[in-house]
Write a sequence for this structure.
């Protein structure tokens, strides 16, 4: 699986959009970009994933550059509950036996009042 | 509730002891993954089972072993425990194409 690079930490004011960048310059054509988050010591939680088109769900939006070498996770209206470590992972989507997720160090997002 | 159940939630044991962590995947999920997260460390992949068979191995110590039973629950056995084995241990099952869903973890403290 391709390697990702994320900033170590970011701050965001409550109510503002949080934009979390991720570089994955060695991504392969069949690798998807996944985002997970881990709140305190809870189990990681799936947020969103995409291949090359921008994606949106009830939690967030994912913007992938045209060359697919980087992406941005957008939390449109951050709340204190969004304070967490956010992990960007690239992985081949597998509908068979499934491939493992390799977690990096992630970005620690602190949402403040 | 993610549907992945891990027991116990907390475990305190002494060095040199052996413990067993249990995981029940979401109903119908055939894959189980184990991860270790030490204090201030990232999530380290340990091992994957698929329908009872080992499929992938990560940074799992020889003192650790796992298995998946016919009812698809999995157990992670940790033996000859050391202080450095203190960590959160997460189990996940596969929910393609969304990747994984994780359990709430077992916090192991070795004293």
């Amino acid at each position: 699986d391709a390697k990702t690079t994320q900033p170590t930490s970011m701050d965001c004011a409550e109510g503002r959009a949080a934009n979390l960048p991720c570089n994955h310059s060695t991504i392969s054509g069949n690798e998807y970009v996944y985002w997970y988050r881990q709140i305190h010591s809870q189990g990681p939680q799936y947020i969103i994933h995409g291949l090359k088109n921008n994606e949106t769900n009830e939690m967030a939006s994912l913007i992938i550059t045209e060359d697919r070498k980087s992406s941005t996770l957008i939390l449109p209206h951050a709340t204190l509950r969004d304070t967490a470590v956010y992990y960007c992972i690239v992985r081949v989507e597998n509908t068979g036996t499934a491939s493992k997720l390799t977690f990096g160090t992630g970005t620690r997002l602190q949402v403040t009042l | 509730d993610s549907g992945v159940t891990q027991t116990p939630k907390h475990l305190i044991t002494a060095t040199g002891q052996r413990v067993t962590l249990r995981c029940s995947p979401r109903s119908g999920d055939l894959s189980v993954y184990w991860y270790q997260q030490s204090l201030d460390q990232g999530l380290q992949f340990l091992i994957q089972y698929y329908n009872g068979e080992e499929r992938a191995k990560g940074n799992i110590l020889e003192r650790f072993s796992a298995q998946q039973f016919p009812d698809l629950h999995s157990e992670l056995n940790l033996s000859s425990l050391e202080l450095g084995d203190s960590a959160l241990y997460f189990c996940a099952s596969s929910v393609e194409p969304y990747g994984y869903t994780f359990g709430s973890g077992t916090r192991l403290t070795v004293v």
